[in-house]
Write a structure and sequence with these properties.
The structure is a single chain. It contains 4 helices and 3 strands, in the order H-E-H-H-E-E-H. Helix content is 45%, strand content 16%. It has 89 residues and is α+β, with helices and mostly antiparallel strands. It has helices at residues 17-27, 34-45, 51-63, 84-87; strands at residues 32-33, 67-72, 75-80. It is globular and about 30 Å long. A hairpin with a 2-residue loop joins strand 2 (67-72) and strand 3 (75-80). The N and C termini lie far apart (49 Å). It comes from Desulfurococcus amylolyticus DSM 16532. This is ArsR family transcriptional regulator.
Length: 89
């Protein structure tokens, strides 16, 4: 198997990471820490991803106005934007 790459289920997902993040946040309107979000995504969706992909997706969602990300110690606290419902209509 020379030259072949190892299978990574992160490349082909049924549920995209951004959607899974939003679904977790909708179920936790008070917000969630980065570590708890990471656990929830792995447990509920079985997603495999790198921290860089998580940060990239969080940045895209924040720039789109869908979420808010705040630093809390060494982690981030993530919650839905107050205007989330306006954007998804």
């Amino acid at each position: 198997m020379c030259g072949m790459t190892k299978y990574n289920p992160g490349y082909w997902r049924i549920t995209p990471l951004f959607r899974a993040i939003l679904e977790v946040l909708v179920s936790k309107p008070e917000g969630i820490t980065e570590g708890d979000l990471d656990e929830a995504l792995k447990k509920k969706y079985g997603l495999v991803f790198a921290k860089s992909e998580l940060y990239h997706t969080l940045m895209r969602l924040e720039l789109a106005g869908l979420i808010q990300v705040e630093p809390v110690g060494k982690e981030f606290f993530v919650k839905l934007s107050p205007r989330f419902n306006e954007y998804i209509k």
